[in-house]
Each structure stands twice: as structure tokens, then as C-alpha cells.
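[Solved] Which block belongs to which protein?

Original post:
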Amino acid sequence: MSKPNTRDQIFDAALTLLSERGFNACSVQDITTAAGVPKGSFYNHFDSKEALGAEIVRHYAGRSKLREVLADDSIPALERLRRYFTGLNDRIVDRGFQHGCMIGNMSAELAEQSDMIRGQLAEIYQAWSDKLEYAIAAGQQEGAIPSRMSAKVLAGFLLNAWEGTALRVRVERTQEPFDQFMELVFNEVLK
């Protein structure tokens, strides 16, 4: 049996703690305690808590396989978008409306505090918006989504609206904001 990698232990503990508590509510000591390693080990693997946070944001954004459906040209574009947002919504509902979207959470918490993490988040939002834009443009070419607005504008709007909805469901602890989002997006905005 191989010995656990200290860096991975720290990273995994931080991923869990940042998801549960947020960035400012956990210290390097909290992270190393959860990882079961001495605090000094942290700085052997990470320059700072901020650098670890930026790496976690990148990791979190890259691990979702759900976004792959947006590029699946074998599925009609409107159905891709519906499956995608249904999957996002279900993840938060299945977790009892706790923790939400780490990208949105870190944005709300750290946009004014960390240029490093803010920059990483901006790149993630752009990549996310690009994937939505691809599916919307395909839907416009198929004739399933009207072309009265550009795919880029619609993608930005959908991303912004969903992130706001994800915050609200955490406060209200009900699926109703997701239901409203889906109703408006698929029966008004994309129709």
C-alpha cells in the first residue's frame, strides 16, 4: 500500500472545507488539521492559501463532466441546454440546497479580496459562457432558438441568471427558484 501524498491530502481537505465553509471561514490550520498533516507541510506544497484557493477553483471548474453535453452535436441543442441546467439544478437540490456552486460562492466572497482568484474565476466564467454560446448558436442554426439576440448575449444572460438562482435556492431552501428559471428560460427566453 502506498503512502498518501501530503499535497493531495492537503488539497482534498481544502476542497472539502472550502465547499462547506467558504474561503474566509477556514484557516491553513483548519486545512492541515483536516488533512492530518503538520501545518508546516502546507507551505512545502503551496505558496499561500490564496494560491491553493485559485488551484481549487480551477480544479472544481474542470471536474464537471456535465458541461460535455453542451458540445454533444448528436443531441438537439435545446435538449442539451435543458439537460445541462436540469443537471446543475439537481446537484444542488440533491445536496439539500447546501454549498451551491463553488464558482458562484467564491465569486461572491473573494472578488474584492483576491485578484489571483478573481482572475481565475473570470477565465472560468468565460469558458463556461463559451460552452453555453456554442449550444445556443447550434440551436439558432437548427431553428429551435430564435436569433433575435446573439448567442453570446443569451449565453451570458443564462449564466448570470442561473448563478443568481443558485444563490437564492440556498437562502430559500426550495426548488421554486430553479423551477422559475427553467420555466422562463425554456418557455420565454429561448422560445
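(Second protein starts here: sequence line, then its C-alpha cells.)
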Amino acid sequence: MQAAKVYDVGVLGLGYVGLTLATVLADAGNSVIGIEKRADVVELTNQGVPHFSEVGLADALTRVTSSGKLVAAEHFGENVTCNTYIITVGTPLSGEGTVRLDMIEAATRQVAENMRDGALVILRSTVRIGTASEVVAPILAATGKKFDIAMCPERTLEGRALQELRELPQIIGADPVASDRAAAVFQRLTSSIVKVSSAEAAEIVKLVDNTYRDIQFAFANEVARLCDAFGVNAHEVISSGKLGYPRTSVALPGLVGGPCLEKDPHILLQSAQSRGLNLEITSAARLVNERQPIETVGFISEEIARRQLPSPLRLRVIGMAFKGIPATDDLRGSMSIKVLDALKKAHPDADVGIFDPVIAPDVLERAFPSEEVFTRFGDAVSGASVVVIANNHPALGGISPRTMSEFIGPNGFVFDYWNHFSHLPTSELGDSYFAVGHTESAA
């Protein structure tokens, strides 16, 4: 009988969280197997090719796969087992807006079937409070095998994941024995370990961190709405108010989305509701951020009518990834898509085109088959009736609004969700530039 191949770590799910973690763990000297149900991702990973854009990942992945430290597979082989399992699968919201746990359950069943007595199981996915104890642990316990379980939430920023895996404090929630074992895994990456008293505490840490950011951005967007109502520049108000004043640090307004911020506050709300609590501030923040695309598209439509722009309208949405700093090609939870949908609904006969400085054109074509995909910023802008700048990638702020007005269609205008040009004098903004919190054009 063939001897079992024992890996130091098995990572279940090779998405943004799992693949970066598996790569850094392997680079630190661990033998790692990554389990991923998507055959194309498994094939690319074993070739040392990331299936998404992340700074430094291509070189690191090539290094660990060529050395044999990291291998990917669709499932655990018959003679494969691990000392530690880390569950990193997704927890998207369902169509009804509730967090899905079916992928967590499926991954846990894979672990339960594969693990030996004494395995350490780490839950790293973002989950509803109580998932480690009430969902994962019972599935593992039903096997009759001995195991330790810990909750160690992922908190890296896309675009800085490899760096932050070695720098950010790692939160560990477990009983003392499991906590020490989980700490030993992550201490190969970073010496900054923060132990909390339970898995529930660790689950709450992740949700609170992201919800806090969502609330901060929601207040910035509230300020923008207020300033628009009074014809005042929100960027000026916010920047001036905190200059040299340590007690105020208001964020700048903009679209708030992505795979975490659009989801995690809802998971926190659902967790609270399971105990009869209603988190009013969290709910209000989500309302402000989620309605922004429709509100701002309402202004865009009013400006189109005021300028009497002729049909067919040429609408261009620039920056489709959910953010531009740090740069990413991730479309999950992108509010740019919400803006695009709102524009198409408001102007169903318009000629709609899109561009992104990071996402490959063929990826955009598959994701948006009804839209024209441009490969260059200049081509997208040329002749446009309305240019909507929808993320904060620095490349989208390279041409001033006055210069841009020479290329867009007659009487066309730019709407900028990210105030790329707030540092420019009004003479460079012209009368065809608007931004969130700055809907009074400069003459």
C-alpha cells in the first residue's frame, strides 16, 4: 500500500484569499496543497500562473510551484492528508441578501473526510457570527475524529496581499491549545499575532473592521450630498476641515463596494438580528452607499437633459474594477457595475462603452457582452456625450477635464466619482466637469 503524502497545510479555495495565502505559506517553507473545484484555476495554478492580478503574485507563485512546495488539485487524493486545513472559500450573499454558507459546509465536509486524528482546522472565510462553532465544528465532530479548530479571519487589501500577509497582525480566536497551534502556523509569516478569547470574537473582529470603514465612507458620501445641495465643493470642505486639525479625519466621498464592503456589513446585520438586535448606524451606512449610483445617475440624466445632448447618447464608463488604488482587476461587488446598470436603465437607447486600465479587454468582453469595450482611455473618451469616471485608478486622472473636453462630443461632460482633479484650479476644470460633492461646474 502506498504511503500517504502528508502536507503541512491544505488550503480549500484558491480565490483571492486562498491563492495568496497558499503561495506565501509555501514561500515560507511549508508544503501546501490547494483544493479548488474550478479545473481551469487548478491548471493555471500548477503552471505558476495566477488567475487574477495581484502585485508580486506571479513571481512568487512560479517560485513555489516550480519547487514543488505548492500543488493544486480539484480534490484530495486517496493517499493525501494534511496536518492543518485552512478554509478560505467564498461566502457571497444570496439573491435574498442573506449570507450563503453552503460553500463553507461543502469545504468542511471535504476536510472531515480527509483529516486524521489531531488535525488543526482554521476557518479564514468571512462568516456570520457563530459559524465556526455552530456550522464547522459539528460537521467535523460527527466524524468521531479528534481535531482543533480556530477562527483566523483574512484582512488583507487586494493589491497588497502578499505584503500584508507578512506584516498585518494575525487574529486568532480559539481555545488555548488550538490558539497556540494556529499561532505556530502564522508565525512563519509574521511575528505579529493577536489572540482573542473565542472564535466568535475573531469573527466579530473581521466584520467590525470592514463595517467601520463602510460607515466612514458613508458619512463622507453624506457630506457630499449636503455640499451638493448648497452648491459647495465637498472635497474643499473635507480637506480644509482636517488640515492641521487632529480631531477630524473625514474620508473623501466615492463609490463604496467590492467583495468585502458590500457584503460584510450585511453579515454583521444578520448576525445581530439573530439575537434580536438592529444595528441602526450600520443599516444607515449601507443605505447611503448602496443608493449612491441611482442618485448620481439621476444628476447625470438631469444634466444630459439640461444640455439637450442629442441622441444617440454615447455613454462611457471608465474604471470597471471595484477600486483603482491599489490596482486590481476584481469586478466582484464593483459599484461601477451598478452605475452602468443605472445608466442603461435611464437611457436604454444609448451607445454604451467601457474601459478599465487593469482588466484585460477579453475579460471585459465576457463580463459585459452588450457593451463596446475600449482598449485605450483616449479612444473611449473620444466623441463621448458623457464620460463617467467610476474608480480611482491614477491613470484615470492623467488628462485634465479641460483637455478632455476637447475630445468628447460637443457640449458633453465628465462626471467623476473620485474627484481625481480636485487639486486643479477652476480654470482647468472648465464648465463640463462634475464630481461627487461637486455638482456646480466651473465657468
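Accepted answer:
You had them paired correctly. Confirming on the second one: The CA atoms of residues 14 and 20 lie 8 Å apart.
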